Amino acid sequence: MRIALFVTCLADTMFPQAATATVRLLERLGHEVVFPQEQTCCGQMHVNTGYQREAVPLVRRHVRVFDPYDVIVAPSGSCVGSVRHQHATVARRAGDVRLASRAESVAERTYELSELLVDVLGVTDVGAYYPHRVTYHPTCHSLRMLRVGDRPRQLLGAVRGLDLVELPAAEQCCGFGGTFAVKNPETSTAMLADKMRHVLSTGADVCAAGDVSCLMHIGGGLSRLRTGVRTVHLAEILASTEQSARSAARP
Amino acid sequence: MTRRTFLGMPATTPPVTAPAGVGHLRGEESFPTAARRSLADPQLRRNLRHATTTIRAKSAGVIAEQSDWEQLRTAGAAIKADTLRRLPDLLEQLEEKVTAAGGVVHWAADAVEANRIVTDLVRATGADRVIKVKSMATQEIGLNEALEAAGITAVETDLAELIVQFGDDRPSHILVPAIHRNRAEIREIFLREMPGVDPALTDDPAALAAAARRFLRETFLSTPVAVSGANFAVVETGTLAVVESEGNGRMCLTVPETLITVMGVEKLVPTWRDLEVFLQLLPRASTGERMNPYTSMWTGVTPGDGPQTFHLVLLDNGRSAVLADEVGRQALRCIRCSACLNVCPVYERAGGHAYGSVYPGPIGAVLSPQLTGIEDNASLPYASTLCGACYDACPVKINIPELLVHLRAEAVESRPRPTAESIAMAAAAYTMDRPRLYAAGQRAARLSRLVGRRGRGLPPPLNGWTASRDLPDPPAQTFREWWADR
User: Fold this and answer.
1) Residue of chain B whose Cα is closest to the Cα of A13
2) Residue that finishes a domain, picked among B415, B443, B462
3) How many Å apart are CA A17 and CA B9, to the nearest integer?
4) B360 and B477 inside one domain
5) How many Cα atoms occupy the beta-carbon half-sphere of B180 within 13 Å?
6) Where are the alpha helices (H) located in B167-204, listed in sequence order?
7) Which of A116, A124, B288, B452 would bridge A111 by S-S if both were Cys, CB 3.0 to 4.6 A apart?
8) Which of B28, B142, B36 lies closest to B376, judged by CA?
9) Residue A217 and residue B469: Cβ atoms within 8 Å?
């Protein structure tokens, strides 16, 4: 299948390993990945901060860039959530009905990684190998905007060598919330402290999630406290194989 | 008194919001400033964590028993949406039915009018004291303060409200207003403020409840006027309903000679069949009970039974403005169950006082700014991570995250420009609409980070991030560079 990668601006700029892993994984599964180079950002940061008018050109760009593709994937529940639940609203609010309906059409073809794998490609065992103790944070937008349910856990459950440990209070937000972490840094940190406490209580070496934004937040806290727990994107785990584990010092 | 029969109609004048200087819809500080204080209070954090965790679990248990919960939510949302759509007509029908049953209906455009109406009504009875059923509407308008200014004492009869009142305090939760107090504090408050209290009172919860009961029973029997709110008004018969747990409401609604009910105009349900839906939704969503212990209903006055004089004050106080907003009006579906507070990770840590309004938590963050106008509560729509737990919990399916985002846009668009933020956002949007400039920006960001130290170096207003979190080292290659190289 020919799949267009919606890389997301944060993964592109700060966490390319999540995006390269997505490419390697899909190619290993026999699919063709294309990267439309004119893409930039879906505009979620603007919308969620109150700058819906400024987001209109970004929505228009996103729709124009991805409209030609039948299947689009992003390694992010949050950015797919924005495409699915915000783009048409932003367009409609700006009075652009045509853009709204094109945005809806693109949204229907846009999938978060675990949705693509389980629902579209029909695979739960991707042949991955990852010999680590891992706990999984489900991320709010994957859970409650996209309703990905247990798809990521099905995928992780089939990874050889992986010891999946239950994260207590997993469904509670980590406190990132994009602009929230900047406008309400103290409440955000209080939420992060509880999330980290739960992560540490599992004894896991790796905290995984399907969103680099939440991982940047949780990982930023775990790193500041020198806990030694790493944050890793779901795609990186699924892209790991016995071969890649042998050739890399760190998975 | 203004008769507002244009509710929901296309307004020719700007919608009227709740007036400033009266009532409790506006905080003195922004949310982040007020939250800072609560976050540093270990007792408050413990109480909030314990109470919200307990109610969440209890509520989830009884909701799981109800196989048609989702259909009930859908029905609740639909009934409320329909009611709001024909609110002007329904309000006039309600007035007709209540009047026919011997009640007197008053229309209050705002808090000032409502307070004046109630004060005049109490004065006319000659009473200098009223008993009160827990009511959000009367707190919203600051009725107790208005009565006090007129020399009338208002006694709250809900146990937690009584604690708040004796403590000269403000409620911090819609359902559990004294959630921020522990029993040692309650004992001290009772010893200090409760007339005729036993000086040997302990902090045993049963002893505290017994002390309140003794005080309240005497008050019930000696006070001829009660003031209540209402959870619902059934239009087809003009029947009012109050649901509660302690029986204090039943006492207030049946013992006194005069009953004055202050109710927001959005509290209507068209028929008794509609009420059935809400009497199933409300207790399960709010207290985690299958059924609340007391449901009191009354229709006008009944000779020889209960209050012989009944006044209904219909309160607007900004609700027409909310109704005029196509996206915002869904907030008027709220039945004040507080499920959204109990599941909110922000509320659980910051507590109710941080919101500055009698309506705290997620519903407060979308209702208060609409009632007052966004300028007066501009920080509230940002007091959320948009995690969506509130939307899932809401028994009438108010899409609170959608509303928060909508109100953030209103906040931004109502502010004079430019601000530092608006310049940054415009610059970011400009850059992100130009892929080559965007790629150049990525390289520049990498260079600037390389010269700074790990985990440091972010300037205000982004320094809140690096105060408690590291930033990762920038990658050697962006994804698009890697893609171009492969």
Assistant:
1) B478
2) B415
3) 55
4) no
5) 23
6) 183-193
7) A116
8) B28
9) yes
